[in-house]
Input
Amino acid sequence: MIEGREDYLEALYNRGARYLTLTWNYNLPWVTAAAEEVKTKSSQGKGLTEQGKSIIRKMNQLGMMIDLSHGGEQTFYDVLSITTKPILVSHSNAAALTPHYRNLKDTQLEALKKNGGVVGVNFYSEFLDSDYPKRVKELYFKSHKKDSINRKYSVGKMYAALSSKEKHLASTPFENVLEHIDHLVDKVGIDHVAIGSDFDGIESPPQELEDVSKFPVLTKALLQRGYSREDVAKIMGLNFLRLLKENEK
Output
């Protein structure tokens, strides 16, 4: 979006942009993505370049939040070594529960807490539940027995081909969302957890939490789990607003 240019970054800020996700699933010339970092064991070439570090400093200067979801682990630590403001990890979960490269390890969560940042829970079934891909494949080949030519289909394509009932069975149980929230709160504290959902980018949300109309289900479940009304308000938006204000200072 900024093509590596700080003047573009500033132009977007002046038009109202208040946070930037540094990258998606592919590297940029100045920053590496989680999906690419995991493909190589060498640490060489990972993280931020000097240009990337300059962009982070510019974001701090402007008051624009740095979003580290999709960023690689080296990128994560490079940013934390530079930033003077608390970071955002807008839609990622706990790797201790679901060891996916898009989720945060406990050591990263500890670093996020020290920084004063916020992590938003992602509702994508695969980031909540390691068994999700297996369920999708089993359901797909059960109803497409003769479809051996498509055995190299991605999990996303297989899920898209399932019936509504099969999709429901494949999606992660609602309880998994609560378990990830519990773990994140345990590791970083109630002031550092938010909702990231990713409804605009995922094909498989959890059971009982299929769209934004179901947020009352999550609110009720958190209250029943022992979270106070104040705690739930923080998770549902106040923590994000606090982060926004601290970056704007």
